[in-house]
Backbone:
Protein backbone atom coordinates (compact mmCIF):
# COMPACT_ATOMS: atom_id res chain seq x y z
CA UNK A 1 0.00 0.00 0.00
CA UNK A 2 1.33 3.40 -0.96
CA UNK A 3 1.70 6.05 1.72
CA UNK A 4 -0.18 9.30 1.25
CA UNK A 5 2.02 12.13 0.05
CA UNK A 6 2.14 15.62 1.48
CA UNK A 7 2.76 18.46 -0.87
CA UNK A 8 3.60 22.04 -0.09
CA UNK A 9 1.27 24.89 -0.92
CA UNK A 10 3.74 26.21 -3.48
CA UNK A 11 3.96 22.82 -5.19
CA UNK A 12 0.17 22.60 -5.48
CA UNK A 13 -0.17 26.16 -6.77
CA UNK A 14 2.54 25.59 -9.36
CA UNK A 15 0.91 22.32 -10.46
CA UNK A 16 -2.44 24.11 -10.85
CA UNK A 17 -0.78 26.90 -12.81
CA UNK A 18 0.83 24.41 -15.17
CA UNK A 19 -2.44 22.55 -15.59
CA UNK A 20 -4.30 25.78 -16.37
CA UNK A 21 -1.69 26.81 -18.94
CA UNK A 22 -2.69 23.78 -20.96
CA UNK A 23 0.68 23.35 -22.68
CA UNK A 24 0.83 19.69 -21.64
CA UNK A 25 -1.96 17.16 -21.19
CA UNK A 26 -2.96 16.52 -17.59
CA UNK A 27 -1.79 12.90 -17.71
CA UNK A 28 1.68 13.90 -18.89
CA UNK A 29 1.92 16.69 -16.33
CA UNK A 30 0.83 14.34 -13.55
CA UNK A 31 3.46 11.79 -14.55
CA UNK A 32 6.14 14.48 -14.65
CA UNK A 33 5.16 15.75 -11.18
CA UNK A 34 4.72 12.27 -9.72
CA UNK A 35 1.09 12.65 -8.71
CA UNK A 36 -2.18 11.20 -9.93
CA UNK A 37 -4.07 13.02 -12.66
CA UNK A 38 -7.22 13.11 -10.52
CA UNK A 39 -5.26 14.82 -7.76
CA UNK A 40 -4.31 17.61 -10.17
CA UNK A 41 -7.97 18.11 -11.05
CA UNK A 42 -8.94 18.14 -7.36
CA UNK A 43 -6.30 20.78 -6.61
CA UNK A 44 -7.51 22.84 -9.57
CA UNK A 45 -11.11 22.72 -8.31
CA UNK A 46 -10.02 23.63 -4.77
CA UNK A 47 -8.01 26.57 -6.12
CA UNK A 48 -11.03 27.86 -8.03
CA UNK A 49 -13.25 27.76 -4.94
CA UNK A 50 -10.72 28.55 -2.21
CA UNK A 51 -9.37 31.91 -3.30
CA UNK A 52 -6.39 33.20 -1.29
CA UNK A 53 -6.84 30.72 1.56
CA UNK A 54 -6.44 27.67 -0.68
CA UNK A 55 -4.03 24.99 0.56
CA UNK A 56 -3.38 26.96 3.74
CA UNK A 57 -3.34 24.18 6.32
CA UNK A 58 -3.08 20.52 7.12
CA UNK A 59 -6.80 20.03 6.66
CA UNK A 60 -7.48 19.49 10.33
CA UNK A 61 -8.81 22.28 12.52
CA UNK A 62 -6.72 23.33 15.51
CA UNK A 63 -7.65 22.16 19.03
CA UNK A 64 -9.17 25.57 19.85
CA UNK A 65 -11.19 25.60 16.68
CA UNK A 66 -12.29 22.00 17.18
CA UNK A 67 -13.45 22.73 20.74
CA UNK A 68 -15.38 25.76 19.48
CA UNK A 69 -17.02 23.62 16.80
CA UNK A 70 -18.01 21.03 19.41
CA UNK A 71 -19.43 23.74 21.69
CA UNK A 72 -21.42 25.27 18.84
CA UNK A 73 -22.80 21.87 17.82
CA UNK A 74 -23.98 21.24 21.38
CA UNK A 75 -25.54 24.72 21.54
CA UNK A 76 -27.28 24.15 18.20
CA UNK A 77 -28.70 20.85 19.45
CA UNK A 78 -30.07 22.52 22.59
CA UNK A 79 -31.60 25.41 20.66
CA UNK A 80 -33.15 23.03 18.15
CA UNK A 81 -34.75 21.01 20.95
CA UNK A 82 -36.10 24.21 22.53
CA UNK A 83 -37.54 25.31 19.20
CA UNK A 84 -39.24 21.95 18.69
CA UNK A 85 -40.79 22.11 22.18
CA UNK A 86 -42.05 25.63 21.52
CA UNK A 87 -43.57 24.55 18.19
CA UNK A 88 -45.44 21.72 19.89
CA UNK A 89 -46.65 24.02 22.66
CA UNK A 90 -47.83 26.62 20.16
CA UNK A 91 -49.70 23.96 18.20
CA UNK A 92 -51.28 22.62 21.40
CA UNK A 93 -52.52 26.03 22.54
CA UNK A 94 -53.60 27.03 19.03
CA UNK A 95 -55.98 24.07 18.77
CA UNK A 96 -57.74 25.27 21.98
CA UNK A 97 -58.47 28.62 20.30
CA UNK A 98 -60.49 27.03 17.50
Residues:
Amino acid sequence: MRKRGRYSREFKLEAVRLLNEGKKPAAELAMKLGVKRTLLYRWRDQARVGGDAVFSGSGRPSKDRQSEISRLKAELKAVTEERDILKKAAAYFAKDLK
User: Anything to note?
Assistant: The longest helix spans residues 63-97.
